[in-house]
Amino acid sequence: MAMFVILLLVFGVSAVSAADDDAFIGVNIGTDLSDMPNPTQVVALLKAQQIQHVRLYDADRAMLLALANSGIRVTISVPNNELLGVGQSNATAANWVARNVAAHVPATNITAIAVGSEVLTTLPNAAPVLVSALKFIHSALVASNLDNQIKVSTPHSSSIILDSFPPSQAFFNRSWDPVMVPMLKFLQTTGSYLMLNVYPYYDYMQSNDVIPLDYALFRPLPPNKEAVDSNTLLHYNNVFDAVVDAAYFAMAYLNFTNIPIVVLETGWPSKGDNSEPDATLDNANTYNSNLIRHVLNNTGTPKHPGIAVSTYIYELYNEDTKPGPLSEKNWGLFDANGLPVYIMHLTGSGLVLANDTTNNTFCTAKDNSDPKMLQAALDWACGPGKVDCSSLLQGQPCYEPDNVIAHASYAFDSYYHKMGMASGTCYFNGVAAISTNDPSHNSCIFAGRYMAQLICFYFLKFLVHHP
């Protein structure tokens, strides 16, 4: 079984942001998976990776209940298919808030509501009710005394920004002014922020080689290769900053100069079809790790240096049932089985490994266990437990030794690490135990050793670049 690990990141750090007290990196959680982990498994993964900010594309009750008492900050969403109802009726909006917000707080830490998703570009027939929907949802929060803790906004595609380079010349598509102006006024009045989806991957792909790959990936550029805004003389060394500043300038064009921006979606696909040669594991690694460093270093943008733009990575899981090209299915940090596509650990207090004292633990079968109980536990791990046991098949690296103890140990350890070494995940009705003895042999590498080696490798690599 081939596993690839790049850099995962995640959580709040102590940097100042105009859109929140702290700058942060969060993750989006999509659900277009043929084998979607249950909410308890999702939250176990979030906790294991210390992910403190998530965005849901709906307000799923089971997920919100699973997130209760976790401390994780949650942005929930009014899906586009519910937008018309919410935007046409104050009562419908009030019922939506009562059912999806008031019923869950304070146990579940809901901090924002995204009303619709890219409505102007994907559901233009609902645009006339978008501002009403924002106002109705906010009014319901006011009535529940929740408006101070929960912000209301709506995510926009960056494609609504026209003439985006140089950024100082950018403006919103003027056909949407009847929506954008009152929407921005609402955000300003309520102290909310503009939600923007920024995808340098698509900007690069659609540029016909005008945009250099290094510029899209945050790779260092020599000064003579940086893009310069001829009006402001500001230098841009990455697409992300240029798009964010274009949004700032577009808002200023409409006389709104004090509305912060939160990037609700960004990322890079790790796999693509023949027409997508730059959707690669290495590029996804480079983009996301450089993005994280950029945001968490409080770099800001050329227009607003030092003001970090809090950002959500798209996305937690690869969504294998998403329609479209292969890249659409491969934006995730993890596969559905919980194995990482790329991973890096940060903490809120600095740059240290998460779980660094337990990376060399293994979950293995007890030698004196009843063979029938071991077999039943092995069958469960490889079945309902969703462990990939293909390495145990004949001819594969972990087939030998061909006995139930060896096979069960491999499956138990895979499940244990898939669940983030959470308490209770190495039990299997009493036939498993945690050990510090590495059971890997020859080319059969157990999850415990693999994760420890890769985390150590990338941590050392990080230290080389951050002495």
From TrEMBL:
<dbReference type="GO" id="GO:0005886">
    <property type="term" value="C:plasma membrane"/>
</dbReference>
<dbReference type="GO" id="GO:0006952">
    <property type="term" value="P:defense response"/>
</dbReference>
<keyword id="KW-0325">Glycoprotein</keyword>
<dbReference type="GO" id="GO:0098552">
    <property type="term" value="C:side of membrane"/>
</dbReference>
<dbReference type="Pfam" id="PF07983">
    <property type="entry name" value="X8"/>
</dbReference>
<keyword id="KW-0336">GPI-anchor</keyword>
<keyword id="KW-1015">Disulfide bond</keyword>
<dbReference type="GO" id="GO:0009506">
    <property type="term" value="C:plasmodesma"/>
</dbReference>
<keyword id="KW-0449">Lipoprotein</keyword>
<dbReference type="InterPro" id="IPR000490">
    <property type="entry name" value="Glyco_hydro_17"/>
</dbReference>
<keyword id="KW-0611">Plant defense</keyword>
<dbReference type="GO" id="GO:0042973">
    <property type="term" value="F:glucan endo-1,3-beta-D-glucosidase activity"/>
</dbReference>
<keyword id="KW-0378">Hydrolase</keyword>
<keyword id="KW-0732">Signal</keyword>
<feature type="signal peptide">
    <location>
        <begin position="1"/>
        <end position="18"/>
    </location>
</feature>
<protein>
    <recommendedName>
        <fullName>glucan endo-1,3-beta-D-glucosidase</fullName>
        <ecNumber>3.2.1.39</ecNumber>
    </recommendedName>
</protein>
<dbReference type="InterPro" id="IPR044965">
    <property type="entry name" value="Glyco_hydro_17_plant"/>
</dbReference>
<comment type="similarity">
    <text>Belongs to the glycosyl hydrolase 17 family.</text>
</comment>
<keyword id="KW-1003">Cell membrane</keyword>
<feature type="domain" description="X8">
    <location>
        <begin position="361"/>
        <end position="446"/>
    </location>
</feature>
<dbReference type="GO" id="GO:0005975">
    <property type="term" value="P:carbohydrate metabolic process"/>
</dbReference>
<dbReference type="InterPro" id="IPR012946">
    <property type="entry name" value="X8"/>
</dbReference>
<dbReference type="InterPro" id="IPR017853">
    <property type="entry name" value="GH"/>
</dbReference>
<dbReference type="Pfam" id="PF00332">
    <property type="entry name" value="Glyco_hydro_17"/>
</dbReference>
<keyword id="KW-0326">Glycosidase</keyword>
<keyword id="KW-0472">Membrane</keyword>
